[in-house]
Automatic annotation (TrEMBL):
It comes from Arachis hypogaea (Peanut). Belongs to the cullin family. SUPFAM superfamilies: Cullin repeat-like. Residues 4-109 form the Cullin N-terminal domain. One of its GO terms (molecular function) is ubiquitin protein ligase binding. This is Cullin N-terminal domain-containing protein. GO terms for biological process: ubiquitin-dependent protein catabolic process. It holds the Pfam family Cullin.
Length: 111
């Protein structure tokens, strides 16, 4: 469905904007993400299939790209510091607007 794909892409774009330091409306994102859960009548099937899989794939690509750059230009200590800060920020995203079940999956794709 086009609407779901558009909503998913909009949310992923905003997540990436926030990852890059931009300001976003977290309340709006929470409402959109909640719709994916509500469509499944409380079950996570729609959330996982229509949103989470693509978001995790995008997250994997995002951090692969960042990690490649950081390894080339940063010391090990700086790299580790950045990685831990990203992990903290991703956990914060889960607590603000993603479903709590996403945390373990995000952790796996980041590390």
């Amino acid at each position: 469905m086009m609407v779901k794909a558009d909503a998913r892409e909009a949310v992923i774009t905003l997540i990436n904007k926030e990852r890059e330091g931009g300001q976003i409306d977290r309340f709006l994102l929470k409402n959109i993400v909640d719709i994916f859960v509500e469509v499944g009548l409380g079950k996570l099937d729609h959330y996982e299939q229509d949103f989470e899989i693509q978001m995790l794939d995008d997250t994997t690509n995002y951090y692969k790209s960042k990690g490649t750059i950081w390894i080339k230009v940063d010391s090990f200590q700086e790299y580790l510091s950045k990685a831990l800060e990203c992990l903290r920020k991703e956990k914060n995203r889960v607590s603000h607007y993603l479903h709590s079940s996403t945390w373990q999956k995000l952790y796996k794709v980041i590390f």
